[in-house]
Description:
The protein has 627 residues and is α/β, with parallel strands linked by helices. It has helices at residues 3-8, 19-27, 32-50, 52-83, 89-140, 151-160, 163-194, 197-226, 228-242, 247-252, 256-308, 314-358, 419-426, 449-454, 470-475, 485-494, 498-502, 524-538, 554-566, 603-609, 612-622, and strands spanning 378-386, 396-404, 408-412, 434-439, 442-443, 456-459, 542-546, 572-576, 588-593, 596-601.
Amino acid sequence: MSVTEETVLPELRNAWWEHGARRRAETGVFGVFAELPQFVRQAVALAWRADKARTSVVAGATIAAGSMATFGLLSTQRVLVELFGAGPTPERVEAALPALAVLAAVTAVRGGLGIAVGYAQNGLTPRVNQAAERRLFETTTAVRLDAFDADAFADDMERATRGSDAANGLVSHTTNLLAGVVGLVAVAVAVVVINPLLLLALLVATLPNGYAALRAGHLRYANFLAGSVRRRRLFVLERQMAERESAPELRTYGLRRFLLGQYDMVMGAQTTEELKLARRVTTTMSVGAVISGIGLGGVWVLLGLLLAGGHIPLSAAVTCVVAVQAAQRSLTTVTLQLDFLFTNGQFFKEYVGFLDRAREYIPDDDSGSRPEPPPLRRLDISGVSLRYPDRDTPAVDDVTISITAGQTVAFVGENGSGKSTLAAMIAALRSPSDGMIEWNGRPLGAWDPEALRHRIAVVLQEHHKWPYTAATNIAMGDLDGDAEQTRIETAARKAAAHETILALPHGYRTLLDRTFKEGHDLSGGQWQRITAARGFYRDADLLIMDEPSSALDPLAEDALFQAIRGRQGSRTTILITHRLANVIHADQIFVLHDGVLVERGSHAELMAVDGRYAGLFRIQAAGYQPG
């Protein structure tokens, strides 16, 4: 297989934004109606919770405006009756004036109701968006960390992120559908009042076009489904050719011609399919138009026969023509909104389903009944194990250790040995599959979780680059209180970040995100200093630092570890690092291998044992010796 084939053919995972269209394509033309009542109920319930007054205005005004079509058509007929009647023209016009006045009033009321609907809906939209989005984020920020380990949860959440947009779409499309349906019913009522036979003629003239529109929509969604891989590949290529992150390697490796070739290949195939779709849609719509045209011709024939036989007046025939045109417009609205409502309904269904399924990952909120933990005296980890859902072997397997307050301890071992996972359990970010972790002899879960978090600070290896100022990034986690500038700067000095921050355009007030105005980029090492300062700022009983110096230069690394050693004897520190020279002064060193604790002791004790730790230390030390 060539490189070109290899990079284009493999399927990508289904994207969240394709889900609604995929369901629409699989459902078919008439299957859309089966789920329609459910989506309409959800839309009404959602809008009602967001704003009862505006929802009432939208529903009432939409129904009222649509029903005005009946009065409008009947008034139009009455005007025509008077104008086509016998007698001098001035008298006929005068006789038509009352009906004209009613028609003008109906038109004015419909216009006013339309304004009321628009005004209420514009106010309803942000409230629906806020309600749906807030509910989603209340859930995503409350679930346990292990929820993100489950593929199904991650996929669910990805699709649910469109919930707020889908909620707005569900409400607006339901309103538009209601307007179209009410308009159709109003026209049908008016036609029946004029002559019941005309209702059959109306159906013959409009339904074929409506079915053709639904069928054309099905063809579009089916094409969308068939082209999902191409479309996702195009999305990836567009990002590769136009984003800042890929720009350096694109130029370094001369990838411009290769990527443009990939684009031409995939886009060429996509264009071919879109041209085929255009022909099929045009054919379908043309057939529908021809059938409706034949039906419309039949309507004119029927009207002619009714007129010739004296069964209806000319005014009724003209009114019927107006009614057919109004019905066609309403039917176009209905068919269009049906597709939109169905696809948005699928996204909203995913949103609601995610909220329901996420409940199993949300801890019980009984923190008020649990006591606040006192300062740390002793941390006991007893027979602790943790298994990830996608792994056969445990990440941490039956580990037992004890840490006394004021100690500096180190977790060392090769990649994948379970160091970070063990630290995450100690930090109460994960719950053990087996075993127990105790703070002062009491399980972590028995303490108030919020108060416990304030006793623990964690500096993560995979830290997030928060798009806030340097000062806010350091004070993160204490933003509800009064972040003191002196305290922020003290923490920055411990992490060798103070001088770096002062060199920024606005010092501690510099926004650390270049996508915003006057924002600034940091290097990997500079970001690592900021995150280390965040850990020092809290001055917690227990500080866990996971690879805090992997991107630091030697001077910054030395300053950082001097600050860590400064905590020894007063505060407890758990240090995870591959640079073993930095753990020589640790009170205890715990060596893990494949999730199992294989060695423990001080540096001198472990070197005397001459086991795994000693071997790793000598390998690193040899790298600093002349060859």
